[in-house]
Design a protein that fits this description.
This protein is an alpha+beta fold. Helices cover 58% and strands 8% of the residues. It is globular and about 55 Å long. The termini are far apart. 26% of the residues are buried. Keywords: DNA-binding, Transcription, Transcription regulation. GO terms for molecular function: DNA-binding transcription factor activity; sequence-specific DNA binding.
Length: 190
Amino acid sequence: MAAEEIHIRNMVCGRCIMAVKKIFHDAGIEPLKVELGTVLLERPLENGVKDSLRSVLEEYGFELIDDRRSRMLERITTAVIELVHYGAGPSGKVNLSEYLSGKCHADYSSLSKLFSEMKGESIEKYYIAQKIERVKELLVYDELSVSEIADRMGYSSPAHLSSQFKSVTGLSPRDFKALKEKPLLPLDKV
């Protein structure tokens, strides 16, 4: 019997991977591999088992993805999250279109069209939103200067980072750091 790859929406961090592994383990299923957005199984799941897993996954905020377009959308969002938050891509300035084309094995124009149709925003806008959320995180940690954050996040200068940050959040990085309550979003809500 052939292996099966299961696609799961809202897997955005290492803790999500651990939670999904536990859900499968508790169901008596040992995956071959669990990564952001996917679980590789030795053999296909029976429908009853799949339905049961679907219910448990939904209790934890995950969702099984069955259709091809939704799977591709999830691959795109996962690739952007990996790139921005976990440094999965090449260091320094990244060509987003080349990175996503390579990661998703499709031409960028079709990825961009699908993403815009299904999410109602461009991949670039989503990428910027993820970058700004990561910058907010780094500002909260207060371990790096704005200049170091700009360098780490691939901005051409601290002024470019500050300008983009202000256009998205309405605040400068310094004003954001001064807030008592810092509005951070979960990655699946960006």
